[in-house]
Structures are given as C-alpha cells and as structure tokens.
Specification:
Porin, 19 strands
C-alpha cells in the first residue's frame, strides 16, 4: 500500500510538471517572433522548415542559421487573505539551428534543422532545493518542391530526442532523468500569387503536423525506491495552421495565422496505471491560437533595417476553477496575450535579427479551498531572441 501511494504521488508530480510546460508548439526564429509568430504565410527563410516547409522554395542560395533565446519568468500569487508572493526564474537556451540548400534554381530545396520544442527548465528562486533543466528537442530533415510557379509543397519529419534532469532535496536527495522519444511528420503548402502573370502580392500557406505518442521515459533514484524505471506517453494531437501575408508597396508586409492544436482529448498514459490516464487539458479545450504581425523595411546604403510588431493569443492547458474542495471543478480555459517587437540588420551575406516578447497569463481559483477565498496566479514571461543567418 505504501509503495502504491508513493507511485500515485510520483504520477501526480509528473502530471503537474507536464501541465506547467508551454505546449504551443510552433516555429522558430527572431524574425517570426517579432511578427507575433504570424509566419505560416511568410516562411521565406530557413526557419520555414518549422513554420511551413513549403516556404523553403523561396530560398535561392544556401544558408545556415542559429537562434539563441533568453527567457525570464515572473509568477505572482495573490489571495484575499494575505498579500501574496512573487517568484522569478531565468535561463538561456540554444533554440534552433539549420542549414538549407536550394537546387534547380530553387525549385527544390533540402534542409535539416535542430529545434528545442518543449522547454523543461525549472529554477524558481523560492525553491532552491528543486531544479530541472533540458527538454524535448527535434531533428528535422525536410524538402520542398515548387510544383507550379505559384504553388509549392513541403514535407519534413520530426525525430524527437532529448532529456531533462531534475534534482530535488527535501530531506532526501532525489534525481530524476526524463528521456523523450517520438516521430511525426509535417506537411506544408504555399501559394504565392506574386508569381502570376498579373502579380498580386499575396501569399497563403497551410501547415499540418501529424499526431503521435511522445514517449516520456523516467529513471528515478529515491532513497527508499532506488532504480525506478518506467515509460509514460503523452498523446500529441494533430496540429493544423493557416496563414496569409500581404505586401503593401515594397517595404511593408502584414500577416496573420490561425492554428489549431487539438489537445482537448489528449491523455497522459501511465505505464504503472494504464487504466487511469490523466487529461492533459484541464478545461478539455484545444490550444487554438491567433497571431498577427507586420514588418516594415528601411533600406539604406549601410544595410536593410527591419521593424517588426506582433500580437498573439496565449491559450494554455490550464483552466480557472471554483470550489469548495469536495466539489472542485474546472471552469473556463486560461488564455493570455503576447506582444512582440523586433528589429535587425540585413546585409548581403548575413542577417542579424533580435526580438523581445512579453506574454501574460492569469489563472483564477474561487472559494479555494473551503475558506471562501479568491486566489490567482499571474505568469509573465519575457523572451529575448537573437537570430543569425549566413548566406552563401
């Protein structure tokens, strides 16, 4: 009985860790981030392999890219009974790297990339006895073909790898290593009406990621339960997005995306408790996201200087809730907002882009738990992204 209780608590800890992660899987790059992530209908650089692989046919010379990111988070807890508390954490990651090579005058483009998909970092100042690092990454080979002057198709595969190490000291030292595995595919289409005989500066894109099971293999070492090993899985759903971009004059581009990530029915499946999967989405809702952005280019003799602005909704797997505790229920989905601003320098052989993003989500609990209190947790995240692209 004691071991079963321990395993139940272990499953609960894993579930809470999964729920705290940002599952809004999308593409990479400072340029796209500066446009609010509205890039499915733009996708005209090497990061296209993550946004819409069909866009790779817009590359006419080989290029390599590297993307780094600094992430700082602030969590503010508030309650009607006391003043609340504030917690912080921050870290640095290499988010993306790629190489793309066009052949046949760009009618076919092959590319390969690395991307950090799920960031498992945890290092809150208030809990120095518990830290976690790492996450789930993908290796992404892809290819795009221009079928018609206005139509391109792209395909990529996502090979999921990576691990996260979590250390905890709460009287007893605990080390837990989580390894990730999985495989899925992505398909993209891009229609560029600027290539018509009578050009229209409009592009329309579509991107679909296939569903799969993400393996979450755990090796845990506890004082009384050493050498625990088990493999859970997470149902990763189909994700489909649509985007469009329109160029006004020679210097201004506006874009918008709508993406559906069908997490509403996704489960966390436990090896030791196969009959009791947990819901990944507390509200049972999908992560449906709206993104809009703009890019304006200032052309000088020194370099091209872009200015980018963006907005996106931030859907989460969390839900607001209300009590009392013996009849606690989740209510509506927690959805936040994100704003971004970016700029850079574009030369003939290199492009450097930088973006700052600020996102905020707020989770509210009413009558929690049994004390007629209203509580809330507000998470504010700042992400600074730096991209370098080298052209050959």
């Amino acid at each position: 009985m004691k071991k079963k209780a321990f395993m139940f608590m272990l499953f609960l800890v894993i579930s809470l860790s999964l729920g705290a992660i940002d599952w809004n899987i999308s593409g990479a790059g400072a340029r796209a981030a500066g446009m609010g992530g509205a890039f499915i209908g733009v996708a005209d650089d090497a990061t296209a392999i993550t946004w819409n692989p069909a866009g790779l046919t817009q590359l006419y010379r080989p290029e390599v890219s590297l993307v780094a990111r600094f992430i700082a988070e602030n969590y503010k807890y508030e309650s009607t009974s006391f003043d609340g508390s504030v917690d912080n954490q921050s870290h640095f990651i290499v988010n993306f790297a790629s190489a793309a090579y066009p052949i046949m005058d760009g009618r076919i483009v092959a590319a390969i990339a690395f991307q950090k998909q799920l960031d498992w970092y945890s290092g809150w100042e208030s809990d120095e006895d518990e830290t976690a690092d790492g996450g789930a990454n993908t290796i992404i080979p892809g290819i795009a073909i221009r079928i018609l002057p206005i139509l391109s198709a792209g395909f990529s595969t996502n090979i999921w790898i990576g691990n996260s190490v979590k250390d905890t000291y709460d009287g007893d030292y605990v080390e837990r290593t989580i390894s990730f595995s999985g495989f899925n595919m992505a398909f993209g289409l891009m229609a560029d009406f600027d290539n018509l005989q009578n050009p229209v500066p409009l592009k329309i894109g579509m991107m679909m990621r296939t569903p799969f099971e993400l393996g979450v293999e755990v090796d845990a070492d506890y004082e009384n339960y050493s050498d625990l090993h088990y493999k859970n899985t997470v149902d990763m759903p189909m994700m489909i997005g649509f985007g469009a971009s329109y160029r006004i004059g020679d210097n201004l581009t506006i874009s918008s995306d709508y993406e559906i990530r069908a997490y509403g029915k996704s489960k966390i499946n436990y090896e030791f408790s196969p009959d009791n999967p947990a819901n990944l989405s507390e509200s049972g809702e999908n992560l449906n996201q709206i993104r809009v952005g703009a890019e304006y280019l200032i052309v000088s003799d020194f370099a091209v200087i872009p200015f980018r602005f963006g907005y996106k909704t931030i859907p989460t797997l969390q839900a607001n809730g209300e009590g009392p505790s013996d009849n606690w229920e989740y209510t509506d989905q927690v959805i936040g907002n994100g704003f971004s601003f970016g700029t850079g320098l574009i030369f003939e052989k290199i492009a450097i882009d930088a973006t700052g993003e600020l996102t905020t989500t707020k989770e509210e609990w009413d009558n929690w738990p049994d004390y007629n209190e209203n509580e809330s947790g507000t998470k504010t995240k700042f992400r600074a992204t730096l991209s370098c692209v080298f052209y050959f």
